[in-house]
Amino acid sequence: MKLIRTGKGQLRFQLTPREKELLLNVLQLYPRIPSGYQPLSQSTGREEANQCLLDEALAETRLQNQKELRMLLSDSQRLRQQEGQWQLTLAPVDVGWLLQVLNDIRIGSWIHLGSPATPLKALNAQTAPDLWAMEMAGSFQMRFLELLEG
After folding, report:
1. Residue range 86-103, pLDDT digits in tens
2. Which of 13, 46, 128, 144 is positioned for an S-S bond with 88, CB 3.0–4.6 A?
C-alpha cells in the first residue's frame, strides 16, 4: 500500500488487488466486539439502567458504522480501480474513523480468542479465523499509520 497525496485535502491510498481483497475481507467482519462487553466503570446505584443506555448507544454507533462502511466500499469515487491497482480516497477524518473500525475488529477478534495475555500455543480450525482477523486488522492499522507519519 502506498499513499498518494492529493491537493484537495484528500488522502489517496494505492492498493494492490490482493491488498484490496484482504482489506475488504477484514472490514466485512465489523463489528467484532461483543455487545455488552464494555461495562460501566462507576458505581452509581443505577448501573443496570445506565448499562442499558450504553449498550443501546454502542449498538446504534455500530449500525451507523456498518452503513458508512457499505457506502464507502460501494462508492466508485472513493474506491476505484486504475491501471491494475486500486485507489482508496479518504478525507483525513475518514482515516481516523477507519482506524477505529479496524481497532474494533482487532480487539473483538482478541476477545473471541479468549483475551490471551500470551501468544497462542496452538493454532486450530477454531482459533485460526480470529487470529487471522486480529493480525490483519492490526497490520492494516499499522500500515495506515506508517503512511500518514511517513
Report:
1. 999 999 999 999 999 999
2. 13
